[in-house]
Amino acid sequence: MCAPAAGYRSALEVAGGSVIFLAFVVLFFVALAYGYWSVKGSGINARRDRTGLVSVGKDPTTDVSTWGRGSASSRSRKRRMTPLENRTAEAIDATAGEGRDPAWRARVGSTVQLAAPVDRSRDHVRGPDDAEVTLVEYGEYECPYCKEAHTTVGELEERFGDALRLVYRHLPLEVHPHAEGAAIAAEAAARQDRFWEMHDAINRAKKAPTPELVRTLATKIGLDPDRFEADLADPALRTRVRVREDFDSGLASGANGTPTFFLNNVRYDDDFAVEELAAAVEAARAVAARA
Prior knowledge:
The chain is α+β, with helices and mostly antiparallel strands.
């Protein structure tokens, strides 16, 4: 067998080694770039699938933030559960509370339970205590979806009358700069027994709930302006203790966006258009009647 000259063989080996090294470097950077854009792309998709920035921690204006629900699409208001929430729901005993009824579970789309039971001594409640269905809403006053839901809830109250009890809890989103201040204004109105009047007035307003607007609304609903100003300045309200309690109970209940509803203590994950939510209320009434 004829062998190449020594000098030629040496040059070939060197060239071959260089080619292999360069190929390895190119493949390495291609793989690195692919991994980067894959991760970046999944992050973009995650943000497209969720809405509303919710603060996680004791103070709803600070700490780590995670994405919640709200802007997925103006045409689809069905709540998307996070992987953690799906695992939580699967871990809950299917026979717990109202979740034991298969038709009920299919209607509400969840087995996630309300962490903090309704307490009339501290909650804002509208409707009789013996109502067949209690609808708890975690919401805020600058979210456009909450304003839409306010109209839906009003229609449900008219339709079901004393069969429905409404409970409202604050979940101000960090992405909305006036939401927390509006919640404090509603609590100040509550000190004059006008919480629901302020709640309705803010939700019906077409503008953001700025300090100027809530003061105008306070006058319209008949609040004592001097007392209202004094209550707004009260450290007990300014420290947001009540709003923070609602916020924390919402996070503990899996309310990671606004609005989030609970029907007889079970989180409702479907569309909050009138007929869809009304059907869920009817399903809850049927379960209550058999209890």
